[in-house]
Amino acid sequence: MAKRLSVVLASGGIDSTVAAAVAAQHGPLALLHLEYGQQAEAAERQAFEAVCQWIKPMHQRVVSLGDWSGVADSPLLRPDGRLNDAATTGTSLLADSYVPMLAAAMLCRAAAWAYTLGAGRIVWGASLDNPSNDPGNADAARLIAWQLIQRSLPGEASPVLDAPLAQYAKAAVVALAADLSVPLDVTWSCLRAGPDPCRRCLGCVARARALG
Fold first, then answer.
1. How far apart are CA 30 and CA 19, in angstroms?
2. Average pLDDT of the segment spanning 160-188
3. Within a domain: residue 55?
4. How far is CA 208 from CA 91, 178, 191, 201, in A?
5. Lowest mean pLDDT among 31-35, 114-118, 146-150
6. CA-based nearest residue to 28, from 118, 160, 105
7. Is residue 1 part of a domain?
């Protein structure tokens, strides 16, 4: 029996790339990259394209969520938004990286594409110790959001939601990446625009700690 397609929400970061590699072991992939006006938009898109060159999905798509700053406020959405120095203040600064309802909006887009493609699964790359502490990434919130989405899709066509790294700490995700020969050097974690990582924001500090 043919293996069903998986739609992977792919940011170009470590977690989503490793989640894609895990999903690739079970069948073909469709990688979906969503832009929402974040500071690191160009750098993340470049990383996504590099990931696609490596993993060679059956489908790949970049979709804009529009001007998210028109309905939500976050330093990530302002070109000059100041981010805290996570190297000195820690990696639990929700205000730096939280965009209200972004996770739910991403799931909706992934569900729409999965339904269109006839995919059997949507892969979400959230890991256990997500540095942003985004409540939208919590297991309970993700489950509730997905239950609402499922009610909007025909029952027989509704894909399942899979978060293969949900019980993995970031260091364990990196170890799994090594086992799967994932090229982490092409991924992007910095919350700023680049062209080089700032090495001070939440994303950079969490990445450095995980890589050891």
1. 12
2. 95
3. yes
4. 12, 16, 14, 11
5. 146-150
6. 118
7. no
CATH number at residue 53: 3.40.50.620
Burial of residue 26, with CB atoms counted within 10 A of its CB: 0-12 exposed, 13-18 middle, 19 or more buried: middle
Domain-embedded: residue 157: yes
- Total Cβ atoms within 10 A of residue 130: 20
Task: Summarize the confidence of residues 127-151 as an average pLDDT.
Answer: 69
Q: Which domain holds residue 179?
A: 6-211
β-bridge pairing 160-162 and 29-35: unpaired
- Could you give the CA distance from residue 175 to residue 168 in angstroms, rounded to a whole number? 10
Q: What is the mean pLDDT of the chain?
A: 87
E strand spans, the chain: 6-9, 29-35, 59-64, 121-123, 160-162
Residue 122: φ, ψ to 5°: -115, 130
For 182, the token pair is 């994932």
List the structure tokens of 53. 């060159």
The DSSP 8-state label assigned to residue 15 in this structure reads H
The pair of three-digit structure tokens given for residue 94, joined into one six-digit string: 């929700």
| Mean pLDDT (whole number) for 78-90 | 71
The pLDDT of residue 93 is 55
Residue 32 β-bridge partners: 9, 61
Q: Tell whether the model's pLDDT for residue 118 goes beyond 70.
A: yes
Residue 37 domain flag: yes
- Mean pLDDT for 127-135 is 63
Quick one: pLDDT at residue 74? Answer: 80
Number of structural domains the chain divides into? 1
Angle formed at CA 95 by CA 94 and CA 96, multiple of 5 degrees? 90
